[in-house]
Amino acid sequence: MDPPAFVDLHLHAEGISDQDLATLAFFGMKAAVTCASDAGAGTAAELRRHWDDLVAIQSQRLKMAGIRPLVALGVHPARIPWHGVDDLLHRLPRYFDDPKVVALGELGLHEGGNREEELLARQLRLAVSLRRPVIVHTPAREKLARTRRLLAILKSSALPPERVLIDHVSEETLPLVRGFGCWAGLTLQPGAIDVEAASSLLRKNGAERIVLTSDIGEGATDLLALPKAAEALREAGLSADLCRRALLEGPSAFLGSVQVSELLH
Ligand SMILES: [Zn+2]
Question: Is this model's pTM higher than 0.90 or not?
């Protein structure tokens, strides 16, 4: 029997070997969004090279492994360059001419503060004008306070909440995020959410606007977090339909531009 198909809305392909990408494809990964990360991007020029690498090289590597490549680009709050932010934001829209570039991300608040908040607001305005979804990071530290602040900034933007995925939610922030109308990402990694917690959250809330993500390739250690979760959720007694929604149909609906039928061909 084929393993359950899934789409990962948050990974970092540059940190995953070719061998591991092939393994992920074997275990059911049909498509993945490789997100602009906080690693390796110091200056604006380095960040642009990172964007170019994701679009040209990393998406090709995903494709070679048999995974449909999708890219999210943006300036991560943990690595805002001291110079050249205006130029970066000016160049960003042109990247969306490439159909593989499907979302802005990862954006968000890390330490918080004016600089991060202002950049987030500017990128949300870009998402509105580009009509693209946004993948948002929430930090491990002070997650509740940062998430509250994040939602306040989202509220004052013109971006529809259903176009926003707030990732790495906790049991505490999930109700806030969903109450606001955003998608919530349960990141199945040590230190984020474990599969027991994910299973009880899905049992309690259903899979409406909840997706499972891995964040592999950037510090995250469990390569097979999502395929293992798919199996564990079934063993915990969740229905096949619920698992399929959290792992495949939800991610596809969030992106809007990627149909499940195209992925399963
Ligand atoms: Zn990430």
Answer: yes
